[in-house]
Each structure stands twice: as structure tokens, then as C-alpha cells.
């Protein structure tokens, strides 16, 4: 195009020069120049416009393409048959369009996949904006809260007013939790509620998740009952089989007149019967643990009572008091201290530490025994889990039950240099 413009300009200059030379000879010099320029200028303007029309069309196409990209339309490209810098610009623009189109298609596919997953998940999901309007509710949420109708745009509080009472109470309590819907045990459904607050586009939103746990918990319940039955059966057999055998042997000894061996047999029967009695009593205590009765307890008196029942060293300050159920906490710590003595630790290395935190008390039972491997640490607090040959698996589980009933938490950790640390954190 630049070559064409140069040629036209050259022709215009040559023609002007020739015409000017001729007119100079015959007419006035200035008049000749003006006449020549006036005659050729319209032709030059027309020719230049004809040459620039494709460029102007290209610029209009580029501007339209940029506007379409801004609006999210990447469906077309631009064609240019010329060469040079403009050809490179068109090629770069078309490559940009191809990239944007591929990215858009990939994003659409991901959105479709995500929408399919969210809509078909069994977890009811409800997104609420800052004015308590439902922004989104998936199919499970529509079925649970809206009778199958769409929830978007509705007032969430109005939707909840028609929900079961247990769900309304769970939402009113705030935070995460579990609740049951239904009156009959066989028809009762158990849900887990979780709530998360976040900001979307600078505005406060809340995501409410309702997960049905009935089938999963029923399976866990069956497995737990099976394990309980196995443990109880094992313990009963370990006690009843020797009792039956010794009773038969005692009867034979009496029939033969060998009464001197009868007291030993009866003593063994008594020992096994008392072991079985203690075993059943521990299970009953775990199953019927009452709600804690909180009292203000002085630490000094409480630690002295513990020392009367089991030996341990003490670290910490005895000044102050806390609120807890004395009998339950005593039972919890006695179990932990006895476990420490049975861990292979020397008696002088079994210690109880007490520390005051800003808003809680921390009690630690420490030993220098063999500690626990990762598998045992992960399961030690579960009911009926025990690595002891004659253990019931209830000591640590009972300690956890008591601690959590007081609003606290329990943690197990191996100590540097060997041994185990059992930490109880109780609210002040």
C-alpha cells in the first residue's frame, strides 16, 4: 500500500511539474501552479480514499472484535489478505481469539460438571446472602426444605419456618451439630448440620449444609454392637469356663474325700467371679454415665484425695479452683494414672502436671513407659479398643466421655525421650 501511495504522489508531482513548466512559458507562473493543483487534487483525494478503505474496514473489524470479547463472545475471527505489520496484527488477534475461545469452552465444561455434581449430591446445600435470601439451593435442599420447589429468591427464615422443629432448633443454636427428625426410632433420620460464613463479591454470604447420616450411623451402630457382643462373649467365656471346670473338679474332690484341695478351687472360682463382676460393672458405668454435677473444687484437696488412691509425682501450682464433677473427674484421672503405672514406666516417673491457661485448666498425666505407635494412638480413645490381653478398652474411652461431658477435650501424644502424655483441657 505504501508503494502505491508513493507512485501516486510521484505521478502527481511529475504531472504538476510538466504542467507547470508548460504554463510557465505561456501563462503567469503562479496561476499555472494553482490551476494544475486544482485539477489534480480531487483525483488524488479519491485515489487515497480508495486505497485506505480496506484499512478503515480492518480497524472497524478489530474494534468490533474487542467489543465482542468484552461481552464474552469469542465465536469469530478476522481475515486480511495483505502483508506487513497489519497482517501480523490480524494474525496475533486471531490467535488471541482462539485461546480465549478454548478457555471459555473449558470453563463452560467445568461449570457444567460442577453444577451436575452439586445438584446431584445427597448433601442439601443452601447459599444465603446478607439479607437472608436464598441465592442457591440444590435438588436435595429443594426436596428437604421446599417440597421439591425452587428455593432461589425466597426468604430463608420463611423456608425454615415450615421445616421440622429439630432443624429449626439446630439452626437457632448456631454452629455445627447433629439433630434427629422423626418420632419413631425406626423412622428417625439423623442429620449433620454445618454452616460456613464467607464473602462473595464483597458481600457476606452463608453456606448451610445438611447431610443425612442415618444409613451410615446405622451401619456403624451394627458394627459397634457386634464388637460389644464379641468382647462380652470373650470375657464371659474366659471367666465362666474356668468356673465351670473348677466347680466340676471341686465336686469330684469332695466325692473322693480330697477336701484339702477344695479351698484352692473355691478361691479361684471367687477370683474369676469377682473379675467378671468388675467387668460388667465397668460396662454399666460407661453405658450409664450421668451428666456431670458441677461444683467448685479446690485443687489442693482434690489432688490429696487422688494421692490416697494412687501414687504419682506432681508438677504445678495448687492455688485456685475449678468447676467439675468431683467423682467423675477422680474416676477419670485414677484410670489414667493406673494406665501410666501399667505402661512399663517406673513409679517415680509417673507424674501429674497442672497448668492454668488463659481460659482453661490443663491436666497432664505423664509416664516414661513404652508409649504408643501411630495405629494405637489413632484408636486408643475408641470404646472397646485395647492392646492389653485382659483389657476392656473402656478406660481411655471413659476418660474421653467424662472430659467431653465437661466441655473439654483429651489428647494423647508420645513424649520426647519415651513415654506418653495424656492431656485434659477443661474450661475454667
TrEMBL record:
<dbReference type="InterPro" id="IPR036890">
    <property type="entry name" value="HATPase_C_sf"/>
</dbReference>
<feature type="transmembrane region" description="Helical">
    <location>
        <begin position="27"/>
        <end position="46"/>
    </location>
</feature>
<dbReference type="InterPro" id="IPR050351">
    <property type="entry name" value="BphY/WalK/GraS-like"/>
</dbReference>
<keyword id="KW-0812">Transmembrane</keyword>
<dbReference type="InterPro" id="IPR005467">
    <property type="entry name" value="His_kinase_dom"/>
</dbReference>
<keyword id="KW-0418">Kinase</keyword>
<dbReference type="InterPro" id="IPR000014">
    <property type="entry name" value="PAS"/>
</dbReference>
<dbReference type="GO" id="GO:0007234">
    <property type="term" value="P:osmosensory signaling via phosphorelay pathway"/>
</dbReference>
<dbReference type="GO" id="GO:0030295">
    <property type="term" value="F:protein kinase activator activity"/>
</dbReference>
<dbReference type="GO" id="GO:0000155">
    <property type="term" value="F:phosphorelay sensor kinase activity"/>
</dbReference>
<dbReference type="GO" id="GO:0016020">
    <property type="term" value="C:membrane"/>
</dbReference>
<feature type="domain" description="Histidine kinase">
    <location>
        <begin position="231"/>
        <end position="428"/>
    </location>
</feature>
<keyword id="KW-0808">Transferase</keyword>
<protein>
    <recommendedName>
        <fullName>histidine kinase</fullName>
        <ecNumber>2.7.13.3</ecNumber>
    </recommendedName>
</protein>
<feature type="domain" description="HAMP">
    <location>
        <begin position="60"/>
        <end position="105"/>
    </location>
</feature>
<keyword id="KW-1133">Transmembrane helix</keyword>
<dbReference type="InterPro" id="IPR003594">
    <property type="entry name" value="HATPase_dom"/>
</dbReference>
<dbReference type="Pfam" id="PF02518">
    <property type="entry name" value="HATPase_c"/>
</dbReference>
<dbReference type="GO" id="GO:0000156">
    <property type="term" value="F:phosphorelay response regulator activity"/>
</dbReference>
<dbReference type="Pfam" id="PF13188">
    <property type="entry name" value="PAS_8"/>
</dbReference>
<dbReference type="InterPro" id="IPR036097">
    <property type="entry name" value="HisK_dim/P_sf"/>
</dbReference>
<dbReference type="InterPro" id="IPR004358">
    <property type="entry name" value="Sig_transdc_His_kin-like_C"/>
</dbReference>
<keyword id="KW-0597">Phosphoprotein</keyword>
<keyword id="KW-0472">Membrane</keyword>
<dbReference type="InterPro" id="IPR003661">
    <property type="entry name" value="HisK_dim/P_dom"/>
</dbReference>
<dbReference type="InterPro" id="IPR003660">
    <property type="entry name" value="HAMP_dom"/>
</dbReference>
Amino acid at each position: 500500500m505504501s508503494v502505491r501511495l508513493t507512485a501516486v504522489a510521484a505521478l502527481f508531482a511529475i504531472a504538476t511539474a510538466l504542467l507547470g513548466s508548460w504554463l510557465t512559458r505561456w501563462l503567469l507562473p503562479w496561476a499555472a501552479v494553482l490551476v494544475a493543483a486544482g485539477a489534480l487534487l480531487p483525483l488524488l483525494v479519491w485515489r487515497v480514499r480508495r486505497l485506505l478503505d480496506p484499512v478503515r474496514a480492518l480497524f472497524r473489524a478489530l474494534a468490533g472484535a474487542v467489543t465482542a470479547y468484552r461481552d464474552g463472545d469469542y465465536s469469530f475471527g478476522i481475515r486480511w489478505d495483505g502483508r506487513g505489520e497489519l497482517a501480523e496484527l490480524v494474525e496475533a488477534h486471531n490467535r488471541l481469539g482462539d485461546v480465549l475461545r478454548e478457555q471459555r469452552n473449558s470453563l463452560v465444561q467445568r461449570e457444567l460438571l460442577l453444577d451436575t455434581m452439586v445438584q446431584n449430591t445427597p448433601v442439601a446445600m443452601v447459599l444465603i446472602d446478607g439479607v437472608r435470601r436464598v441465592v442457591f439451593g440444590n435438588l436435595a435442599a429443594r426436596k428437604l426444605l421446599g417440597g421439591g420447589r425452587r428455593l432461589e429468591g425466597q426468604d430463608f427464615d420463611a423456608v425454615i419456618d415450615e421445616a421440622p422443629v429439630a432443624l429449626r432448633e439446630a439452626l437457632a443454636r448456631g454452629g455445627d451439630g447433629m439433630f434427629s427428625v422423626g418420632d419413631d426410632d425406626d423412622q428417625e433420620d439423623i442429620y449433620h448440620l454445618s454452616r460456613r460464613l464467607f464473602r462473595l463479591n464483597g458481600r457476606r454470604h452463608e453456606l448451610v449444609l445438611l447431610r443425612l447420616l442415618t444409613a451410615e450411623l446405622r451401619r456403624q451402630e451394627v458394627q459397634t454392637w457386634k464388637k460389644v457382643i464379641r468382647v462380652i462373649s470373650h470375657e464371659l467365656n474366659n471367666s465362666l469356663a474356668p468356673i465351670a471346670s473348677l466347680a466340676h473338679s471341686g465336686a469330684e474332690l469332695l466325692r473322693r474325700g480330697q477336701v484339702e484341695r477344695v479351698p484352692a478351687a473355691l478361691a479361684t472360682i471367687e477370683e474369676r467371679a469377682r473379675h467378671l463382676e468388675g467387668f460388667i460393672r465397668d460396662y454399666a458405668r460407661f453405658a450409664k454415665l450421668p451428666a456431670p454435677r458441677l461444683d467448685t473444687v479446690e485443687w489442693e484437696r482434690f489432688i490429696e484425695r487422688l494421692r490416697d488412691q494412687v501414687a504419682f509425682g506432681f508438677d504445678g501450682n495448687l492455688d485456685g479452683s475449678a468447676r467439675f464433677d468431683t467423682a467423675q473427674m477422680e474416676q477419670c484421672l485414677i484410670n489414667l494414672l493406673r494406665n501410666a503405672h501399667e505402661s512399663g514406666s517406673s513409679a517415680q516417673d509417673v507424674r501429674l502436671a497442672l497448668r492454668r491457661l488463659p481460659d482453661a485448666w490443663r491436666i497432664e498425666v505423664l509416664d516414661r513407659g513404652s508409649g504408643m505407635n501411630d495405629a494405637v494412638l489413632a484408636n486408643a480413645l475408641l470404646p472397646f479398643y485395647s492392646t492389653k490381653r485382659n483389657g476392656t478398652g473402656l478406660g481411655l474411652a471413659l476418660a474421653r466421655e467424662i472430659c467431653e461431658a465437661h466441655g473439654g477435650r483429651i489428647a494423647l501424644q508420645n513424649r520426647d525421650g519415651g513415654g506418653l502424655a495424656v492431656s485434659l483441657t477443661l474450661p475454667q
